[in-house]
Write a structure and sequence with these properties.
mainly beta, Jelly Rolls, 3 domains, globular
Length: 578
C-alpha cells in the first residue's frame, strides 16, 4: 500500500538515525504489573543451561523463532543435547512449548536433579503447521505446540529439570519455554453430586462416555452438580441442554475430557457453571464452519467458566445468543486453531479475566459485534502470548467496552497487541459506540509486518476499517516494550481513508520501538499526552494519510511528552525499510 503525504503535525522535523531492533528475552524487564495471576512460573529455554543451538531472534513471518516466546528458542538436533531449567519455585509438573518438524512425533527424556524420570514429555507435529489460504497474507503457521507432564515428585526452588534428546526419532526438537507448577492433589467429590462414572463413563478413555455425560447432566439439571472424577474420558459427541447445572472436575491436571466439541447449544436458560477440568481436542485443521469448540453458542445468563485447561480446539469459547453476565476466569487456552474466545455479538456485562492464552491461530480474545452489539463487557488481567496469525485482543465494534490490565506478548503476522476496530467482516455489524476504555495494558514485542500492506501494524492499533471512529476511545497508562515496529497505529485498514477521531492517549511508557512511536495512516485527530519514549528506532511520528486527498491527520500535544519529537519525512517508504 503506497502512501502519499497529506497532513503534518507540529513537531520537530529532524530524523533520528535508524537503529537495529534487538529482541529481548521474555522476563528481561522484570515482573509485570499487568496480566494474570498465574499458578506457574515460566522459564525461557534461551535463559536456561543448554548445549543446544540458539534459534532466533527473528521477526519473519512463518518461522519457529518468530512464533516463539521472546522470539527465541533452543534447538536440540543431536543425541544427548538438552535444556536444563533451574526452578525458582516449588513444582511437581511442567508444561512445555516446543516445535518439531512437520510429520514428526517423539518424546524428550525428563531428568530431575540429574536422575532420569519414568515420565517423558510427548511431542508431536499433529496439531501444528496449519494453512488458511482463505485469509489473505497467511502462510503456514501455528508451528509450536504445548505438552505437559506430572513429574511424580515435589521439587524445590534451586532443583533442576532437564529436557534431553535421548533419541532423535521426533527431532530435531525446538524447546521454547517451560511452565513449572505445583499441582494440587485431586479435589474430593462434592456432596450430592452426580458422578459421570456412576452413569457409565469410562475413566480409562477406552469407551466413549458421551451418553454417560448426557445422562448425568440431565439428572443434575435444576441446580445440581455433575462430577468428573480423576480420569481420561472420551466424549465423542457434543452436549446440549447445559443449563441450571454445574459440571465440576477434580482439577484440570486430573480430570481430562477428550472432546473436540464439548457444549454446542444455541440457547440456554443460564446458570451453567463449568469448572476445574481439562478439555483437550483433536482439531488438526481449521474449518470455520465446524463447531469444534469447547463451548459453541450460549451458556445463558449468569453462567461461569473457571479453572479450565482448553487445548487443541478450533476455538475455546465461540459465544452467540444470550450470555449476559458471563464470567470466564482462571483458565488456560492453548494451541487453538483459531480464536481463544470470541464474544460474537449481543454479549452484555461479560467479564473475561485472569486467563492465560498461548499459541492461538487467530485473535486470542475478541469481541465481534455481529447481529447485535457487545455491551459493557470487559477483558481484564489476562496474559496472552504468541497469537500466531492475528491480534492479542481485538475489539470489533461494540458499546462501552473495557480492555484493561492485560499483558500481551509476541504477536505475529497479521496482528497487533490490541486492535480497536470497525472492521465488520459481515453485516449486520454494530460499530464502536459509547466509551471504549483501554487502560493499564502492557504490550511486549507486539505488532507485525503485514504481508498484505508490506508495512507494519503497531503494538496498539485503532482502525476505522469500514466506518469512522465515532466512539470515545480513551487509551491510558500503556506500557509498550520492544515493539518491532511502532507503538500506536491509526489506520483505515480497508484503504478508504475513514477518520480515526475522538481518541485520547494519556500516559504511556514506550521502551524500544523499531521504527516510530506514532504511525498515522488515515485522516483524523488524536490527542496524546504524558507519553515518554526511549530507544526510538527512526523517528517519533510517521504521518502519511492514505489515500491521497482523503484528508489530514492532526496529532494534538496534550503535554508531558518526551523522547519522540521527530518526524519521518518520506511517505514513499516505511521508516527504516529498504
Amino acid at each position: 500500500m503506497r502512501k502519499a503525504r497529506i497532513g503534518r503535525i507540529t513537531l520537530a522535523a529532524s530524523v533520528a538515525a535508524a537503529a537495529a531492533l534487538v529482541a529481548v528475552p521474555g522476563g528481561a524487564h522484570g515482573a509485570p504489573e499487568a496480566g494474570a495471576d498465574l499458578p506457574f512460573t515460566s522459564i525461557e529455554a534461551e535463559s536456561a543451561d543448554t548445549n543446544g543451538s540458539p534459534v532466533g531472534p527473528d521477526y519473519t513471518q512463518g518461522t519457529v523463532a518468530s512464533e516463539s516466546s521472546g522470539r527465541q528458542a533452543v534447538e536440540l538436533d543431536a543425541q544427548g543435547e538438552y535444556v536444563e531449567f533451574t526452578l525458582t519455585a516449588p513444582a511437581n509438573a511442567v508444561n512445555v512449548a516446543y516445535s518439531v518438524p512437520d510429520g514428526k512425533s517423539g518424546s524428550l527424556a525428563v531428568y530431575a536433579n540429574g536422575t532420569k524420570l519414568d515420565a517423558s514429555l510427548a511431542v508431536t507435529s499433529t496439531y501444528s503447521y496449519m494453512d488458511t489460504p482463505w485469509i489473505p497474507g497467511a502462510k503456514t503457521h501455528h508451528l509450536l505446540d504445548n505438552s505437559r507432564v506430572l513429574l511424580g515428585q515435589d521439587l524445590a526452588a534451586g532443583d533442576t529439570v532437564r529436557l534431553q534428546a535421548d533419541d532423535l526419532a521426533g527431532g530435531p526438537y525446538t524447546v521454547d519455554v517451560a511452565d513449572f507448577e505445583q499441582v494440587a492433589a485431586p479435589a474430593e467429590q462434592p456432596a450430592g453430586s452426580v458422578s459421570v462414572v456412576d452413569k457409565g463413563a469410562d475413566p480409562t478413555g477406552a469407551a466413549d462416555s458421551a451418553e454417560a455425560f448426557r445422562t448425568a447432566v440431565a439428572e443434575a439439571r435444576g441446580g445440581g452438580t455433575v462430577w468428573i472424577p480423576p480420569g481420561d474420558f472420551k466424549v465423542g459427541s457434543e452436549l446440549s441442554g447445559v443449563e441450571n447445572v454445574t459440571i465440576q472436575g477434580a482439577g484440570s491436571w486430573h480430570s481430562v475430557v477428550r472432546s473436540s466439541r464439548f457444549v454446542n447449544q444455541s440457547g440456554s436458560a443460564g446458570n451453567a457453571h463449568l469448572a476445574d477440568f481439562a478439555v483437550i481436542g483433536e482439531v488438526t485443521e481449521r474449518v470455520d464452519g465446524n463447531p469444534d469448540n469447547f463451548v459453541n453458542g450460549s451458556l445463558g445468563a449468569g453462567s461461569t467458566v473457571s479453572g479450565m485447561w482448553l487445548q487443541h480446539l478450533k476455538v475455546g469459547l465461540w459465544l452467540t445468543g444470550t450470555n449476559d453476565g458471563l464470567v470466564v476466569e482462571d483458565s488456560r487456552f492453548l494451541d487453538m486453531a483459531a480464536d481463544g474466545l470470541n464474544l460474537n455479538g449481543s454479549a452484555k456485562g461479560v467479564q473475561v479475566r485472569n486467563n492465560f492464552l498461548r499459541n492461538t491461530g487467530d485473535d486470542a480474545l475478541a469481541m465481534w459485534s455481529l447481529n447485535a452489539p457487545d455491551v459493557d463487557s470487559t477483558f481484564a488481567d489476562n496474559t496472552i502470548s504468541q497469537p500466531n496469525l492475528a491480534n492479542g485482543i481485538a475489539i470489533y465494534g461494540g458499546t462501552d467496552i473495557t480492555v484493561e490490565n492485560n499483558r500481551i506478548l509476541d504477536t505475529n503476522a497479521l496482528g497487533s497487541g490490541i486492535a480497536i476496530s470497525n472492521q465488520k467482516f459481515l453485516d449486520p455489524f454494530h460499530p464502536l459506540a459509547g466509551t471504549i476504555t483501554v487502560a493499564g495494558n502492557e504490550l511486549v514485542r507486539t505488532g507485525a509486518m503485514n504481508p498484505n500492506w508490506n508495512h507494519p501494524m503497531g503494538a496498539l492499533r485503532v482502525d476505522s476499517y469500514d466506518s469512522a471512529i465515532e466512539a470515545d476511545v480513551n487509551i491510558t497508562d500503556t506500557v509498550v516494550t520492544d515493539s518491532p515496529w511502532s507503538a500506536f497505529e491509526f489506520v483505515s485498514g480497508g484503504g478508504t481513508g475513514k477518520a480515526v477521531q475522538n481518541v485520547t492517549i494519556d500516559g504511556a511508557t514506550v521502551d524500544g520501538v523499531g521504527s516510530v512511536v506514532v504511525q498515522a495512516e488515515t485522516q483524523g485527530e488524536v490527542t496524546a499526552g504524558n507519553v515518554t519514549a526511549t530507544d526510538v528506532g527512526v523517528a517519533g511520528v510517521y504521518n502519511c494519510p492514505y489515500p491521497e486527498g482523503s484528508g489530514t491527520f492532526t496529532l494534538t500535544d496534550g503535554g508531558g511528552n518526551s523522547g519522540w519529537d521527530t518526524e519521518w519525512e518520506d511517505c514513499s517508504a516505511w521508516p527504516g525499510q529498504d
